[in-house]
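Hi,

Apologies if this is the wrong queue. I'm a grad student, and the batch job for Biopolymer transporter ExbB from Photobacterium indicum produced an output file that my downstream script rejects. I'm not sure whether the problem is my script or the file. Here is the sequence I used:
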Amino acid sequence: MDTINNLQNQFGLMTWPLLICSALTIMLLLERCVQVLLCTGVGKTKINALLAKQYRDDDRGLDELASELKQQRPLLYKGVAMLISHRHFDKPLREDAAGIWLQQKRTQLRSGLRLLSLIGVITPLLGLLGTVLGLIEMFKGIAATTGSVTPSDLADGLGLAMRTTAAGLIIALPAITGAQLLGLWADQVTAKLEHTLNHCNLWLEGLDLDPACNKHSKKTSVEPSAVNINTATANINTSLSSTETAL
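Support response: The file is valid. Your script probably expects a header line. Output copied below for reference.
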């Protein structure tokens, strides 16, 4: 209670609005930072390494991979697991499902940022309002004084009035900065998710942009080529033998 009374003496009528805005700013920034740590940490390289170990026709292995990825915290794993689970659908349907999933995750990543921006706009106005109200009270006190007004009286009144503006700006700076930085982070994570999901969707269709993911298909495609080459060589030798016999 002593702390609250001291704050009320320092900031006047704007004490509780400024305290509420500061508490909301701290909670939102902490919650978003924790969300950053939980959602990031996995890049396209790890996804490519996982896909490189899988065969496209191995339904059992792909189902196990999807179940394993769904239990992981990073969003990139969950998105790839969603696409693998829908691999039996046509490519346009998978793209629609991926688009809806990306929109949901974009909304989740940007949740709370509008409130942070609103706090960053409101708190300087609250501080300015507290300053104006403090100046009004100061001039009322001066008008009610019958004696001479000393500089110390003016300094105390002006200091009390200006503290609310300073408090509002102190709250607004981290709120606006945090909202902008977290918005940039959300856009970067969404772009990474979209790129990786497109890559995984092409992999499910049989097109590999990464040579490492195509190592299994290369091994299986070399053998038929070698058989065709050997067959063609045998046919040429047979033609030459028959020509020599005819001569």
